[in-house]
Design goal:
228 residues, elongated, alpha+beta, six-stranded antiparallel beta sheet, hypothetical protein PF0899 fold, 4 helices, Tumour Suppressor Smad4, five-stranded mixed beta sheet, single chain
């Protein structure tokens, strides 16, 4: 083999070895990126999502994030706060119902390699009871099972000073799982999410308008606390 060719091959081999060494150096020094942590938490949330009704999907609010000893030193409280905000936004975008305020706990795991992350969450209890709440005029009111009425007359369960309301304007019934609203022959009508109704099932986040008053309806999980 000619000396020129040998020299070329030696240089090529050196470049390859150098490239491989550089690649392994990059892998060994790889930093865990914040987006990888937030994505891992989102994935854990999606996996744990549990249907709890026609329009309700529950997800746990507590997540344990495991990273290597080295990476744990680089994950600050400020970074966890930013990740938490992304996770909350993800839950909102998916329409998930959280069982509480999002909690992220960081734990160093000597068994994990640098750049790796594992996320676990507690299981959501299958048995969930719901608390219907309605907010109007800046106040939130809890509703009990059964039927409650709304209107401007003092005989209504919720008497509201609004001349646009009929004496007994509408009622809401709740059977422990499903809530429904019915207009009681009001003059100005009852509207849910912008549509005039006679009777309709209420969903979490429904917007009710009657007279000049706006009502926000929601269903909150009471015993959806994740088991430890």
């Amino acid at each position: 083999m000619k000396a020129g060719i040998v020299g070329f091959l030696d240089k090529a081999e050196a470049r390859i070895e150098g490239g491989v060494s550089s690649l392994f150096a990059k892998i060994s020094k790889r930093h865990l990126q914040p987006i990888e942590i937030s994505q891992a938490v989102k994935n854990a949330m999606d996996v744990a999502a549990t249907a709890a009704g026609e329009d309700r999907v529950l997800v746990p609010h507590r997540y344990l994030i495991k990273v290597s000893d080295h990476d744990s030193q680089e994950v600050t409280e400020q970074l966890l706060k930013a990740i938490r905000a992304e996770v909350v936004a993800h839950a909102s975008q998916k329409g998930y119902r959280l069982t509480g305020e999002i909690e992220l706990k960081l734990e160093a795991d000597a068994k994990l390699a640098r750049g790796r992350v594992q996320v676990g969450s507690a299981a959501v209890k299958s048995l969930v009871t719901w608390q219907p709440v309605i907010t109007f005029n800046g106040e939130r009111q809890e509703l009990k099972s059964g039927t409650v009425t709304f209107g401007r007359d003092i005989s209504a369960d919720f008497a509201i000073d609004d001349r646009g309301l009929s004496r007994i304007h509408f009622e809401i019934a709740f059977n422990g799982d499903v809530a429904a609203i019915r207009d009681l022959g009001s003059t100005n009508g009852t509207f849910v999410d912008g549509a005039r109704i006679s009777e309709v099932v209420l969903r979490s986040g429904s917007k009710i308008t009657a007279g000049r008053t706006e009502f926000d309806f929601d269903l909150l999980p009471l015993t959806g606390e994740p088991s430890e």
